[in-house]
Amino acid sequence: MSSSRRSFLRLSAVVLPFSRISDLFAKSAINKPVVISTWDSGQIANGAAWPVLEKGGKALDAVEQAAIAIENDINCCVGLGGNPDRDGHVTLDACIMDEKANCGSVAFLERIKHPVSVARKLMETTPHVFLAGVGAQQFALANGFKLEPDKLSPDAEKSYKQWLIKAEYKPVINIEHQQSHPKGHGPFAPARLEDGSFNHDTMGTLALDAKGDLSGMCTTSGMGFKMRGRVGDSPIIGAGLFVDNEIGAATSSGQGEEVIRVCGTHLVVEFMRSGLSPEEACKKAVERIVKPNPERAKTFQVGFIAINKQGEVGAYSVQKGFNYTVTEQGGKGKVINAKSYFA
Ligand code: SD4
């Protein structure tokens, strides 16, 4: 035994109670591979990511598969099946980030089915990080992505027509719906609520692969009936998604403007860097959002999920009703309700 290890053990025996010593060892235990996604529809996302991770594949490939699965699901909230903007067009925002701080983002992208894959293409084949609008679409077409019809899904068309009756511009995540339908999404419950609206429009996935590398993605159709051209947090590196392979990763869902204001996911990762657990880090970031105006914070929802380098996971939200899905050894996704600032 080395002398430093011997003196560490001697010191521990004198100074640290047993529970503290086991904590120290637990911190270095690594739980991998593991994948977590926002919401209970994370079961679809994680279900596509897990086979990649289980075979020893890369976290980056796993999170892209998660995005493809959820963007393909026409009954879901994100991708071309999502709600349109107030002019009746579905516009997509997405990003992806890997273990080497490579990242790619697209925003205000129309008629392309897999925005995360376009973001990955941008990341891997150009010196750029972010493309928007017509340029992003042009890039997608030049790289073999197909132009989809300019058409709403039947459900989105129904909810848009309903919205048009009053055409009230209320760009706020509907908290009452999230709270009264905590399971209002995913394969075990209707994705769209009775009045046609969704309880969320964004999916984020974070994975730690068998090699110990982290990657993440975030994909959204943005807030339903938003102003044309409005872009939220989801495609913004440091807001909707951030990965630091030394520390951990985080992604968000909810009122994008509030996440952008504090560079939300970058903040979560920095809190983990200072030693906080993923849940504590998410909580601190939520508190940072609420602090400047607690009254206003009662009117919106933001939820963060995070994973650290040890494969520990956690989440926290402004309002109750936010949940996330964790898939680890055994491959069965477990849905967990996040704690929240407001009870
Ligand atoms: C946005 N963050 O566009 C997205 C919306 C969202 O659940 O997450 N909805 O601001």
TrEMBL record:
Family annotation (PANTHER family): L-ASPARAGINASE (PTHR10188), N(4)-(BETA-N-ACETYLGLUCOSAMINYL)-L-ASPARAGINASE (PTHR10188:SF6)
GO annotation, cellular component aspect: cytoplasm
Transmembrane segments: none
Top-rank lineage group of the source organism: Bacteria
Protein name: N(4)-(Beta-N-acetylglucosaminyl)-L-asparaginase
Sample GO molecular function, one term: hydrolase activity, acting on carbon-nitrogen (but not peptide) bonds, in linear amides
Signal sequence residues: none
Active site: 202 (nucleophile)
Residue numbers marked as site, Cleavage: 201-202
